[in-house]
Each structure stands twice: as structure tokens, then as C-alpha cells.
Write a structure and sequence with these properties.
Layout: H1 4-20, H2 25-41, H3 43-46, E1 50-52, H4 64-72, E2 76-83, E3 86-92, E4 99-100, E5 106-107, E6 114-115, E7 122-126, E8 129-130, E9 136-137, H5 143-149, E10 155-159, E11 180-183, E12 186-188
Parallel strand pairs: 1-2, 1-7, 7-10, 10-11
Antiparallel strand pairs: 2-3, 3-6, 4-5, 8-9, 11-12
Length: 194
């Protein structure tokens, strides 16, 4: 098998492998806390006035402390909402106002102010897997790839737990690399290409 179907199958296999090696809840919670505490001390966080983040799913790094910190520090916080075939980043004033969308993910309610990616300083991107060149494996919908391909003056940083690092992420021409990554060990920049 070759072509798009082969790439799709390899990506799906990698998602299964990474999820199968996920540590227990306590280990993931400890890593998520360390990741958040570390990022709060980093220049990329401190310099950012507008932060786009995500509401974590159970298998993703828990960034909820960062969401609360952004609001507490007076940053503009944005969360994604998928509607009408595209992903938009909507302003969040308080986390209690979030509502479940069609996918069961807590998102800002319809009618909330949207900001364009050009207005974002730091975009925290969830990952299923990431390699050293910062090639990201997502859930397969291509939502973040389309946003990032449209132009991004912001820094897009993958947020991940240690078990989500892999040797190589299979990529197509449309897959977008990230600018940086953050895990419990700190900030990672892309490895140089040969």
C-alpha cells in the first residue's frame, strides 16, 4: 500500500502505539504539573500577551493550570472551536462559561469574539506524538495544520508528555511543523535537518 492510504494507516498505527505506552494517571498528572510550572517561568510564556491553548482531553497533557494562569495574569486567552468546517480561536473570559461542542470538548460558546491567528503571540498545540524535528501527529482532522499553514507570526509550541516523543512522525506535504515543544523537561527547539 502506498500513497495517502498508506500514510493514514501509518499515522493511525503510531497513534495506537503511543496511547498504549501511556503511563498511569498519577505519572501523567505529575508530568503535566511540572510542564505547566516550567512553562510559566519561560520567556515565551511571560512575553506572550495573547495565548491560544486547548482544553485537554484525558490522554493529553493537562494544561488547565496554564489556562487559569493566563486569566489571572491578564493575558488574552483563546480556545479553539470547530464550526462550519473550520477551527477558530475564541476569547475566553472565564472557564466556567465553556460549553461542550459536538465532539464533547469544552469550548467557548457560539457568538464569542474570535481573534485571527495573526493576533496570537503563543499557540499551545496538543499532540498525539512529536519527533525531534517537531513534526506533529494530531488526531487526523488537520485543523491545526490548516490554521498554521495559513500564516503564523505566533510561536506554535507543541505540548506533550514524555511518552509522546517518537523517533519519526510520518508526514504528508500538508503537515505543519511546530516552532517549539514543551514537556516536563523544558523547552525543545527543532533538531537540525541533515
Amino acid at each position: 500500500m502506498s500513497g495517502p492510504d498508506s500514510l493514514r494507516a501509518r499515522k493511525q498505527q503510531l497513534r495506537r502505539l503511543v496511547r498504549a505506552r501511556r503511563p498511569d494517571e498519577a505519572a501523567c498528572a505529575a508530568e503535566s504539573r511540572a510542564l505547566c510550572e516550567g512553562l510559566l517561568r519561560m520567556e515565551i510564556w511571560q512575553a506572550a500577551r495573547t495565548v491560544a491553548a486547548y482544553m485537554p482531553l484525558p490522554h493529553e497533557a493537562d494544561v488547565r493550570p496554564l489556562l487559569m494562569a493566563a486569566l489571572r495574569e491578564g493575558k488574552t486567552l483563546l480556545l479553539p472551536r470547530v464550526a462550519e468546517g473550520r477551527m477558530a480561536f475564541l476569547r475566553v473570559e472565564e472557564l466556567s462559561a465553556l460549553q461542550k461542542d459536538d465532539y464533547g470538548i469544552l469550548t467557548p460558546p457560539k457568538g464569542t469574539d474570535a481573534l485571527s491567528p495573526e493576533e496570537i503571540d503563543l499557540m499551545l498545540v496538543p499532540v498525539e506524538a512529536l519527533d525531534g524535528r517537531l513534526r506533529r501527529l494530531g488526531k487526523g482532522g488537520g485543523w491545526y495544520d490548516r490554521v498554521l499553514a495559513a500564516g503564523r507570526p505566533c510561536r506554535a509550541a507543541g505540548v506533550l508528555l514524555r511518552h509522546q516523543w517518537v523517533r519519526e512522525v510520518p508526514c504528508g506535504a500538508w503537515d505543519q511543523r511546530l516552532d517549539a515543544a514543551v514537556d516536563a523537561d523544558g523547552l525543545h527547539l527543532p533538531e537540525p535537518t541533515a
